[in-house]
Write a structure and sequence with these properties.
The complex is a heterodimer of chains A (90) and B (230). Chain A has 90 residues and is α/β, with parallel strands linked by helices. Chain A contains 3 helices and 3 strands. Chain A is globular. The N and C termini of chain A lie far apart (31 Å). The relative contact order of chain B is 0.15. The chains are: A alpha/beta (90), B alpha/beta (230). Chains A and B meet through helix 1, strand 1, helix 2 and helix 3 of A and helix 3, helix 6, helix 7, helix 8 and strand 6 of B.
Chain lengths: 90, 230
């Protein structure tokens, strides 16, 4: 995905990547234009299933970074941990 | 009886979670750990599970797993660059023609990308053929944003897809994006989303596939792309 971000950006498309903490070093090494890092597990970068609030916050943080970044290689580390919702919460 | 070796070493045990006899995408990272770190992981995991039996708090169990996962993947990967491209954004994000593009392996029911010409390849088969996927050029699935969630399918031999099956928005957030659109945060959201299996031939992706996808998005007048890797 890092390569896709670089190629799209070179083609004139602005990109933002939402990645998990596990891959932070790998994504940083690829000098991507804009990256948001979440403290969520592999495969669930936006948050736990049905955790709508967290998923929404992550997307908005990524959209805000699209607008605010002034140079390549910006990484925003989002706070917050993974909250699997119990059946009662859903 | 299985044909597992009777005198299996700890290293063999640890490695078996990565596409071996105990293949488990959530725990394939164990292969990247030293024996010492892996044994420490199991000891702490069992201790925290013991806590959770009484306290019911499995978040600490999950946190322990994610922290160890991060430890296992620490450091740069195969590709490093000193500089990066940059396209400035000159208007509010709410006005951007935005498209969702993920490497989560989603597609619409009835529109199977048929890797290796096989229709309805199962998740288990995809994991078993991970090395074949890594040699192949990725196929793009185009997914209309108004696709009902229960018509979405996901298959990817590189990660545990159970979270994405429970709720596609964990890595393919079409419902969340449509909500933001309804609320007025995204006035120009593209009506199509895109997904592929990120476990693919990386140099083919870089040199051939990605430039073709860039042209496709430009033809659709897309200005910005929300990328979600898994």
């Amino acid at each position: 995905m890092g390569h896709l971000a670089r190629v799209l950006e070179e083609a004139g498309l602005a990109t933002v990547v939402i990645g998990t903490n596990a891959f932070r070093d790998r994504l940083a090494a690829m000098r991507l234009p804009r990256t948001v890092i979440t403290r969520h597990p592999m495969g669930r970068p936006l948050g736990a299933p049905n955790d709508r609030e967290t998923q929404r916050k992550v997307i908005l943080a990524a959209l805000e970074l699209l607008e605010s970044a002034r140079q390549s290689g910006v990484i925003v580390d989002l706070p917050g941990s993974y909250h699997p919702l119990s059946h009662q919460d859903v | 009886m299985t044909d597992k070796p009777t005198n299996e070493s700890f290293e063999e045990f640890k490695n078996s979670f990565s596409y071996g006899s105990r293949s488990d995408m959530n725990f394939k990272f164990l292969k990247n750990l030293s024996d010492e770190d892996a044994s420490g992981f199991f000891r702490e995991l069992l201790w925290k599970l013991g806590d959770a039996i009484d306290g019911g708090n499995f978040e600490r169990v999950a946190e322990h797993i994610f922290q160890t996962q991060a430890l296992a993947y620490v450091g740069p990967g195969r590709f490093t660059y000193d500089t990066g491209p940059f396209t400035p954004v000159t208007k509010p994000f709410s006005e951007l023609r935005l498209a969702l593009f993920t490497s989560s392996g989603h597609f619409v029911e009835g529109d199977d990308p048929k890797p290796f010409g096989v229709e309805n390849l199962t998740q288990q088969e995809a994991e078993a053929r991970i090395n074949d996927f890594l040699k192949e050029e990725p196929q793009l699935s185009v997914i209309p944003l108004d696709t009902p969630e229960d018509k979405l399918r996901v298959r990817h031999g590189g990660y545990d897809v159970r979270g994405a099956r429970a709720d596609p928005n964990v890595n393919f957030p079409i419902t969340r994006l449509k909500e933001l659109q309804r609320e007025g945060h995204l006035s120009q959201l593209h009506s199509l989303a895109y997904s592929f299996v990120g476990a693919c031939a990386q140099l083919r992706l870089l040199n051939h596939t990605a430039p073709a996808w860039a042209r496709l998005l430009k033809e659709q007048q897309i200005e910005a792309v929300l990328l979600v890797p898994v």
